[in-house]
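Task: sequence design from structure.
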């Protein structure tokens, strides 16, 4: 086993802090990863990780090996990028993180078309219920909604996107339309429970005026597609993204409400670390994804 293979293996295990997760990514068994890690420690003559039944932790020697090894791997990656750029064809592995809903509906189909066009690139797409750290989890690209929270990453706008308050015609025929945000307190609102934000609290702005409304209703869920289905069935008022409901709005299956009031920004960005910004494979993928998402018929 060469030194670079050792570094890659150790970096992957250290990122996951779990042999089974590292094994899944490598496509091997956990015992195989454990054996390779033990061989590495024997070769170096030091223990790199403390093992428990639930989790792995780095020893001081492991911290040093990871810190300096990550720098070497980054330099190797930059060298490979420099060399492969000369042949004009992007190649290599891209690790992409996106949310479950948008990832399934939009990113996964884009990845399928991208791989057909650029067969020398491999993509690992990981969908999660909340954004993952690029640095800590080893992703090259993250697809994010709204404001980009981390100043240490670069961001590229992929698609402009608004959050919209809406309900089905059947619901509005029975209960009427809210005229101002506070009217929502008298309506059945379908609440999406996600991330760590206070659920059921909707924030509105109109010019310099802001209003926060605590909504309630019989239904709530942590899955956006379920919330949307309930709204289409006339169960209440929801807040959903433009990309998800544009087709339903066009078919009048959902009616937009409180159009003079704006909800928090929901534009869709690709984020990536500074060291990856010159990568041909990354630039090619981000360019492709932005074009794919903005193409007619791809957003609704």
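Answer:
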């Amino acid at each position: 086993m060469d030194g670079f293979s050792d570094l890659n293996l150790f970096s992957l295990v250290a990122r996951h802090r779990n042999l089974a997760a590292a094994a899944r990514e490598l496509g091997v068994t956990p015992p195989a990863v454990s054996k390779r890690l033990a061989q590495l420690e024997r070769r170096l003559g030091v223990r790199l990780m403390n093992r428990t039944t639930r989790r792995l932790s780095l020893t001081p020697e492991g911290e040093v090996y990871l810190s300096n090894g990550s720098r070497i791997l980054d330099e190797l990656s930059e060298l490979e990028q420099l060399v492969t750029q000369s042949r004009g064809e992007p190649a290599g592995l891209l690790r992409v993180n996106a949310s479950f809903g948008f990832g399934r509906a939009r990113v996964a189909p884009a990845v399928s078309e991208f791989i057909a066009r650029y067969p020398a690139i491999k993509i690992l797409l990981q969908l999660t219920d909340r954004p993952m750290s690029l640095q800590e989890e080893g992703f090259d690209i993250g697809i994010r909604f709204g404001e980009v929270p981390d100043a240490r990453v670069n961001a590229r706008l992929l698609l402009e996107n608004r959050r919209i308050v809406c309900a089905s015609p059947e619901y509005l025929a029975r209960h009427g339309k809210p005229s101002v945000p506070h009217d929502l307190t008298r309506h059945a609102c379908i609440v999406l429970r996600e991330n760590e934000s206070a659920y059921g609290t909707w924030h509105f702005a109109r010019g310099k005026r802001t209003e926060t409304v605590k909504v309630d209703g019989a239904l709530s869920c942590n899955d956006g597609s379920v919330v949307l289905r309930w709204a289409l069935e006339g169960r209440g008022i929801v807040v959903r993204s433009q990309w998800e409901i544009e087709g339903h709005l066009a078919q009048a299956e959902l009616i937009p409400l409180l159009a003079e009031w704006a909800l928090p920004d929901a534009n869709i960005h690709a984020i990536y670390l500074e060291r990856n910004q010159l990568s041909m494979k990354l630039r090619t993928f981000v360019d492709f994804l932005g074009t794919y998402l903005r193409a007619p018929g791809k957003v609704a």
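Residues 171 and 193 are 22 Å apart (CA to CA).
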